[in-house]
């Protein structure tokens, strides 16, 4: 037979001069006649009125052929007609609305009107169809033409024949599909090999155009080629943080107020010949309010405030960091006068030239571009750059020099007056007991929290409210704040933890040793509470009240070492053996001894020298002293710790009865307050400060100074909505 036939069921076929559609009857003769007339006419009349037009059964030549049963309804075209073209729907620009459809699905809605959801659904459907087609497709079984005529056509097993392409396909009544071995399948094979490539290219194009990498973090369009655009954001006027919400850092607030005043009232400074500073670096330990101060600046200033995180400059692509720096400063120039805040600048501002093994670093390229952009500002640009970091020691000197960051603003842990002001801020939204006054409560809590940062104080107030709610209390009471302070310092209580009687006795006498040594040493911290209820990782807990001081003498440090060794000495004295419970005490004693010998120059043999001690997690590549000096340092540390141990042993031997009293009372009550210690040991033989008034005595005032200089009293007069309140409390 000179022409090829293809059989289709329930689909379209292209008809032409050499194509014919036959639907054979149940007899072999009807099938033979159909094959015979296919060579003579282009549109033969089919028997029994079963002739179908080319329009109703058309299929484009060269398309992939799928054999279906004649009883399968035509759904594909209907589905395509019902598919709506993509629209923008209710999608809003920006990254924050990119997954709005997912939030709607979580609420039980079906977001078909969302463009992103439709695109994702269509992509998923296409991938699924392609997967199932190539996984479950039947390539067909090749047979000879003679075998087909003899065993299928002559027996009346063929239901339908069609010839739209170059391959003969038919559908047998038994449900099998066959392909004659003598025919060529190169067209279909080429198409099948091309479909996976086209599918992969389509998925990649979709990912570039619509995926997360295409839109970028800033939510802009442009696909993958917009990756160099800045991720900085211009904050609107809906910032709820004000300078009144920032307390405990009045000097830093004045510096920031002056920067804003530079931008709003430049004539005040230009008349005197002053130039606007290029920038300021906010440094200090974590939790001291660097980012909060920047938020307050954004809330108070009427100039544009642009913010960005240092880690957002570094991506997987080379050159993205410098490109984003250029784009960010271009944005700042367009919005001048404005304030640009870079949080955690140490991500890109580290010192150059170390740890890259001769290769070029993307971080260094970004830093170099930052240096060029900042140095490129002139005095009329009116763009102030603020940056925040808690690691100023690792920053590149070229970044921190005057001309780029002119001012270094240090925000350290607040003193007792600053803590009182911070407590007043965080006590405002709490529902306190009517008997508590905010000022008096803030002062008392400030005296109980030496060394706390603003973040710690915020956590204490929140924990107090949670504890009050846990006990169904109508108000937050003072005891809730005391429990919150213990929770923050020592961790939560483990009242269900099971201790053996011998372990409980050891813990009781261990804590009694600490308490008695601290009670009878002049420079030890006053004791507030001691407990043998496990907290956090420890089996016992003792709360002391450190002094508000910044300078320590050798005698004061030595007494603190003796107090830390009191638990280990008590174990040795009363049980004749030592346990692992003193591991944390020994670590602190060792750190204190090394600091005295190496850093503070308190060793007579070593002399008045000071060396740096590597911080935790840092590796000491090269010691700044010789091996002989290192050996002398170790000997002096052992001598100092040994002297403290001997003194503690002598003290507890002399006060053995007092240790037994405290230990037995701890086993009975588990928790001892300061009043219980006075009952057991008598009044402490030294003068100690415990109240807020005693701590601030001689400092000039009970509260921190929040007054503004004359030149800054009208710093925010131009702001819409009113003036700045001078008091931050």
UniProtKB/TrEMBL annotation:
Biased composition (Basic residues): 49-60
Residues of the AAA+ ATPase domain: 276-415
Ranges annotated as spanning the membrane: 117-136, 148-170, 190-208
Pfam families hit by this protein: AAA, AAA_lid_3, Peptidase_M41
Catalytic reactions on record: ATP + H2O = ADP + phosphate + H(+)
Subcellular location: Mitochondrion membrane
Source organism per UniProt: Ictidomys tridecemlineatus (Thirteen-lined ground squirrel)
Similarity remark: In the C-terminal section; belongs to the peptidase M41 family.
Name recorded for this polypeptide: AFG3-like protein 1
Keywords on record: ATP-binding, Hydrolase, Membrane, Metal-binding, Metalloprotease, Mitochondrion, Nucleotide-binding, Protease, Transmembrane, Transmembrane helix, Zinc
